[in-house]
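Chapter review: from sequence to fold.
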Amino acid sequence: MNTETTRLISIISSVQTIEQSNAAMIEVVKALEKNENYAKEAKSYAVAVKRQVMEEEPINGAEADEIRSRIRKKGVEVLGGKRARAYKNSSLRGRVYSDIYGEVKRNFGLTAESGKRQSYLFLKRKHYKTALTLIDEYVPPIALYDEIDSENIVDVE
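The token string follows.
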């Protein structure tokens, strides 16, 4: 072979090597992109699982304090204010608060295996906002309302 042919064969061999290197690099890039997609999917899945787990957890201390505060506020409102006779009647006041707490427990299935109601502190975080709305919209049963009304009418007379 002459030198020109040898030089051309060497150039062709170099080009083929470069093409093979480029093809290998392209495969590496594709594999990296695929791994990146897997990583994004895994992260997205982990975030969804974390959110789901958090929603199934019981409410935290601050949320429990807010529920307690809303129940107290609603109780005072239902009883006619802190100066009302119905509020000053500890038995009646206790039944109102008991009914509000009971309403929360009934609506969210807070019943232990023994059939006894669990504390509202076991309320799942996913139900927290609904519980606040339920408390804000609470209306006492008619019999309890009538007792409150009768007790407060004595004030007017």
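Two observations follow directly from the output. The chain is about 75% helix and 0% strand. The chain has two domains: 1-56, 58-156.
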